[in-house]
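Input record, target 12 of the design panel.
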């Protein structure tokens, strides 16, 4: 099972968060850019990206420099370090319709957020709070019903045998001892 876009809980209606600005890079307006695309460099292939809240949009041109686990990029209209630094933490969105369709066993992470999670017998376990990826594979953060705590579940076929986006549910078979 795979996810084509690792976006945590950042989906906003018909837009999907494709990245975030981690800060300025250099003195000529470049930014350190954290990409949430499965291939990080694809962030520049989606055309204009929209800033989270202020209505601005930018074209992204990757510059190819190394920057502490992030990409370096030029954003249209950003020409100084001060302008770049002012964008630190801003999330960048793309219209959902620009994303390609996926095979049956792949999902955009944003589609998983909020789905009800049940065990194979139908007992409610909770809801998907976020989809995390720290390098190895995706992990579902499930807000456990009645506990006020979260459970981290590997997003593998063994742990998650069924996903039904249309019905709004996931069947999960957590490893022993996880609950």
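The sequence produced for target 12 reads:
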């Amino acid at each position: 099972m795979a996810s084509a876009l690792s976006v945590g809980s950042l989906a906003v209606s018909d837009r999907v968060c494709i990245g975030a600005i981690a800060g300025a890079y250099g003195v000529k307006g470049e930014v350190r850019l954290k990409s949430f695309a499965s291939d990080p460099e694809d962030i520049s292939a989606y055309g204009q990206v929209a800033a989270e809240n202020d209505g601005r949009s930018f074209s992204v041109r990757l510059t190819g420099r190394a920057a502490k686990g992030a990409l370096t990029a030029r954003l249209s209209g950003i020409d100084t370090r001060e302008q770049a630094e002012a964008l630190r933490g801003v999330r960048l969105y793309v219209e959902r319709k620009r994303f390609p369709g996926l095979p049956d066993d792949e999902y955009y992470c944003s589609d998983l957020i909020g789905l009800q999670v049940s065990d194979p017998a139908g007992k409610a376990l909770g809801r998907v709070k976020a989809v995390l990826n720290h390098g190895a594979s995706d992990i579902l953060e499930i807000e456990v019903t009645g506990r006020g705590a979260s459970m981290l579940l590997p997003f593998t076929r063994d742990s998650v045998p069924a996903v039904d986006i249309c019905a709004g549910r996931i069947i999960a078979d957590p490893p022993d001892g996880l609950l």
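DSSP finds two helices and 15 strands in the chain.
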